Fold:
Amino acid sequence: MSENVITCFIPAGEAKDNHVTINELAENPLVKEIFITGKGIAEGIELPSKACLSEIESMQTTKGIKKMAELAKTPYTLIYTKTLPLKLGAWALERMVQVAQNTGAGMVYADHYEEKEGQLSPKPVIDYQDGSLRDDFDFGSLLLYNSKDLGKASWNMTEEYKFGGLYDLRLKVSQQKKLFRLPEFLYTEKETDTRKSGEKMFDYVDPKNREVQVEMEKVCTKHLKDIGAWLKPEFPQVKFEEAKFPVEASVIIPVRNRIKTIEDAVRSVFSQKTTFDFNLIVVDNHSTDGTTELLEKMAKEDSRLIHVIPQRNDLGIGGCWNEGVYHEQCGKFSIQLDSDDLYIDDNVLQNIVNAFYEQNCAMVVGSYRMVNFKLEEIPPGLIDHKEWTPDNGRNNALRINGLGAPRAFYTPVIRSIRVPNVSYGEDYALGLNISRHYQIGRIYQPLYLCRRWDDNTDASLDISKMNAHNTYKDRIRTIELWARIALNKK
Structure:
């Protein structure tokens, strides 16, 4: 394998940390040059002959990407995105270059090890697919680009971004070449974020990240237009009188083993004040902790509670939803409430049903407030998904990892699509499908309290479960992306 085929870019950080990474790279004969980007590297650090400071302020900017493309005179460009020390595995760069040559990929990334609080653990990542549109897709911190593909992509960057440069780069490269995951553990990176998975999942809707999110939406929207997947904000009228229903609205709660919270959820439904009739369909997925007996007792107290125990024993949350919406007592509008949560006041159902008629939409998404088990507010507080706009919400939905809650549906529409029989991402799959055809209405005031506690299904996921969840959401995005491209071709 030829020498001097890689130009490296690393961000400036603590001098001692940069020193480790620079020396690790400089010792490899494949590396020709190392450019240190950004500001803050301590003066006096002794750089090897291959390394120098660059004028690039940030590799996250469009200007930074264009400058990297200009400086990279070698066949491959290696971008390391962290400031903490990098440790390469045996023959790691040689393997990445070999695979890049064999596959013709525009970018190669790899599984790796993660060092957290002194402990080393494997960190497999997931395969990239057409629907991997999230700006926070985890490639790991070591990215090997084909320099020609990087250069072509940089030429096509017509918008200037402060935060979305790397995101724009990989989307543009993916339009022409594959982004290839190498399932081999080739390096070790340090991780300082020790939060559980359930604490990280709301970072993208934190208000302090709003400016970043607006820019990322612009990047993704341009990509969707480039590949023919962008949809105009044009929607058919929803005709709400096309069928008759026993009640105007049904709240649907799938539940399994939630004896601690289900009574609160049920009573929050029955506290609602409305100008129409409604009922509550609780789909009890064979609970074994006393939930079933409690629901039987509550159903005797109030005839509006319809307690359903499915005949099947292979249902996930989505399958339980189908049991509810196809029930003969289901109302015109099917309204979600999780068994952990409760409505914030007694006007929620009225506000949701009003929104259907006022906004003429087939689905309504509200907002919620994050609380602990004692119902005390916890960060980030209000989750309102303001990134959903009437003009571009249906497109931006392909970038974000969820549409918000609580969710409500015009029952004929949800019946025509059906909910995937899974227990993660089923609501997102349904929302994407609906947004392809219909307007989704929004309510930005909080409608329910989302109770976060250790028994939440996503409170603390191991890496294999997180990867499975992310792979599934990318898969349903791929399905939706292809469907929209086909729709536009018609």
In short: The chain has two domains: 6-194, 249-489. The chain has a mean pLDDT of 92. The domain at 249-489 is CATH 3.90.550.10 (Spore Coat Polysaccharide Biosynthesis Protein SpsA; Chain A).
